[in-house]
Structure formats: structure tokens, C-alpha cells
Model the fold of this input.
Amino acid sequence: MVQVTPTDVLVVIDVQKDFCPGGALAVPEGDAVIEPIHRLAPLFSHIVLTQDWHPADHISFAGSHAGAQPFETIELDYGQQTLWPTHCVQGTPGADFHPELKLTQAELVLRKGFRTRIDSYSAFYENDRTTPTGLAGYLAERGLTRVFFAGLAYDFCVGSSALDARRLGLAAFVVRDACRAIDLNGSVAGMDVEFAVSGVSVISTLDLGIALEAN
Done:
């Protein structure tokens, strides 16, 4: 059993319309994370939401590269980049949080991916691994030392955020049944290995004393 303390924070990653069924980059069963997140939320005194917030000509969009197709990989200045369908464009309905996500108690909404020439999976750093989002400083000033992650997608933005939390010396927990994955070319298995190596704890809602209702 994992006991939640007042210095823990729940970071809910990118539960946005474009990542849910019917969206431009729908994660399979993406909206299924909402119920477990709602059940987790009352355990936490502190909640942060992240929001993908791309300009329309973002470098990670396949449409920004002549002849490119979604899910291809290209090499950019900061390393390999998966090309995605155009999604979560600033100010569009697809960038909105899913309408069923009700976390009005969240203390911070952190937008990421708004720099045109670099993508941002992690809640802590852009994909160059050096440009900070400011979240680390926010948590440090608030005295929050353990980070619990839920949302979309397990093998990209959730996973990258958890790995960066460990890199920053924070205890990191991923609540697996409050996440859903894309699983692109073995990305789930790869992320599982990275978690094991880095010390990210993969837990379930049961580990936090929550029993989800059967559908």
C-alpha cells in the first residue's frame, strides 16, 4: 500500500479531446482514464494538469514536412522526433480538456509544446532534455517531493514526465490503470524497461486503496 502525504502531487497529463476517442490523435480508450483519475483526486492536496498547446505549424506535425506521413521518425537538431497528425492546436476544440474531466481543484495548468521548433513530451523539459517548463521550480518552491502521474499517453508524455522526475531526484509513481498507451513500435515495452532502470514505481489504484467499480 502506498500512503499519499501532504507533500505529494498528482500530475494529470494531457487528458484532452484530441487524445480521446474521436480526436485527431486518439489514444485507444483514452477517455477511460477519467474515472480512475476522479477517484484518485480526493487523495491529493495538490493537483497539476498539463495541456499540449501547439502552434498550427509545429515541427512535430507530419503536415509541416513535405511528403512526410504521421508516425514516421525524422532527425531534428535535438534528436529523433516522431511525426504526429496535427493535434492540440492552440485555441482549437481538440486542445481543450475532455469535457468529462472535472478537476476544478487543480492548482496549476501547465501548457507545453508551444515552441514551434521543438516538441515537448515531458511535463518538465522540452524534447531537447534541457529547456525547462518551470514545473520543477514550482514543485520545489511548494515543497512537493513525490509525484504521481496519470493520463495520456503512458508510453510518451506520461512516461517522459516520470523519467524526468527521477532525473530531478523526485520520487515518481505512475498509476498504470489511470493511464492509456499508444504502443507505437513497442513503445510500451521500451518505457517499462526505462522505468525499471530509472526507479520509476508503476503502481495501480489498488495500491492507493482505491477499488474501481466494474463497468
